Amino acid sequence: MTAHEILGRQVAMPVQIRKATAFMAMYSVPTSAAQRLIDPTGLEILQYRPGRGLCGLVFVDYVDGDLGPYNEFGVVFMVRDHRTRGGSVPGDLRALATGGSGALIHQLPVDGDFTLAAGRGIWGFPKVLAEFEADHASDVKRASVSQDGQLIVDLTVKRGFRAPGAAKSTTMQAYSHIDAITRCTSWDMNPDGVRTRLGGAEVTLGSHPIADELRSLGLPRRALMTTSIPDLKMTFGEATAV
Predict the structure, then answer these.
(1) Is 238 within 8 Å of 185 (Cβ atoms)?
(2) Is the peptide bond between 220 and the residue preceding it cis, with omega within 30 degrees of 0?
(3) Structure confidence by residue, pLDDT tens digits, 181-192
(4) Which residues pair with 142 in a beta bridge?
(5) What confidence tens digit (pLDDT) does each residue in 100-140 have?
(6) Would you say 195 and 167 are in contact if contact means Cβ atoms under 8 Å apart?
(7) How would DSSP label each residue in 104-125?
(8) Contact 182, 214 (CB under 8 A)
């Protein structure tokens, strides 16, 4: 077992998240616009249909974990495995179905100093400090994130339908990029009580540069689907530069 020293504390690997709640909205975005945003990573946007990629807006409340309690907002793009270049739509769909795709964590505001230092220092996640208002407990989920008084995103997700097949452990490759280094981290998830539906999201974009990035992708628009997870356990392994 390895460990990292973060702000005078030892963080043993792998990091365990014993209790979290999350909700998200997934959007169809133009491949070309999304690719321009992630070009510095060297990764490729996965296409679920010709000319269209997938972008997720995710709010997570970390209730009990090795990095302490905190809130997080992520802008996530589905990408091809870094060892796969110039894929096709059929190949991308197979990768989505079989777990062969990856998730690039493009933006990651949080509200805790320790998780910020750990996220950047251990995995190279692009964490920045921000302010949150979040309601993960109600049937209709709602959260907003701001930085220095500028609204980034306000997201509301309506109640979905139980998705029993989604309540299983999955492993995904999480990609990150800061300081000109792209990293890959094994990310194990064990969700319970998953609810999902087509559409079901309302998003308001603010005046922050992250909001401007999302506008460049054509948001706000109707979400492809929304998902809420009232009970989520996760494990993060070591990061590897790619």
Answers:
(1) yes
(2) yes
(3) 999 999 999 999
(4) 135, 156
(5) 999 999 999 999 999 999 999 999 999 999 999 999 999 99
(6) no
(7) EEEEEEES-HHHHHHIIIII--
(8) no
